[in-house]
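ok here's MIF4G domain-containing protein:
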Amino acid sequence: LQSSIMIRGNDVAIIIGGTKTIFNSVTQENEEEMTHHLLALRSYNYPEALEEVISIIVDKACEQPRLCEVYARLCAKQVDDELSNDNTSRFAKALVQRSKRSLVRTQEQREFGRIEREKKSDIDAEKDEQIKKDKQTELLKMQYKVAKTRFDDANYISHLFLHGLIPVAMILNYSMNLLASVTDNPEKSIGGYPADDISIERAVSMFETIGKSIDEENLRIEAATAAALTAQTPPKQIKMQFPLDRTFEVLGEATAIVGGKLSARIKRLIDLRANGWVPKEGVDYSNDDVDEARSKSADLDSNIAALALEKASLAIEKASLAIVKASMATENASLVAEKASIATISTEKAVLEKGDVRKAVADMQTAMEVMRKAMAALEVRSKALQESVNSD
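and the structure:
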């Protein structure tokens, strides 16, 4: 059993590593070859690896938005391969679950504008320069995260939808969340907050990709329903029509609450649909927003790096001050040691001087003793001389 678990664990590692290699290497030119390698992995046979595999694919789609269409085709072929051997697709279900998480993230991003304003106010009120720079770095990281995912999920989910891998109900729910700043509180949105513009722009990006397909599907549903009514044979299943007319009405309302560039882009999209999705001659429908988002992300990267460098410079300056203080402390210690040395010399000198006094006193005492002895001898000789005189 343990051996079997080890073998399966090795297989999972091979599948994850192989998926990374394939999606790091795939291009429009080698798509067919990479598709063959992807199908050979049969990752759908390893449920424990699927979540990681899907995350690798979606993350890569976020890094390379211009290859979203290629990545979506690879996923579609993977699902077709699985369905050829089974009635359901675990791979497709995992894709849907991952897309649902993107929807939750969109709801969180709707709060970004409010949070951003609060943080900016907090930064302006901060007095401590170091804390202020830390807060600025934190805000820049938040802005970077939002900018990086600005179009990613919308683009990739749109291409998955075109291949029938994302249900229309999820697209409807997704678009409702993206446009909630227009539909929920339009009177409060005049002027547009950053989070509103981000969400609305993602919706525009999505309908630039799937709008034509939705319109065509709605026409097919209408035709099938009309044919069934004419034949008086109700259809077995009535498909859901996407409310694209209402969606474009909301987009039209959004032109009053967003920036000029986004407003012009929305108007071009509305005009394109009104013209049957046929581009008008002389109108530039190209979209450089992905490159612009990358540029903004790069700018944010530069700002974060600059702040980090400034923080490092402050840290170096603090370290230099600490070294100077330590040097001064060492110098003070040297002065104290020198004073102590001088005091020691003075003490030794005093001791030596004190020793000389004792020697002088001893010499004096010796001299006085010699003098006493001399006086005593003199006195003896004086007595002897006196006695000699008296006897004469």
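+1. The longest helix spans residues 289-391.
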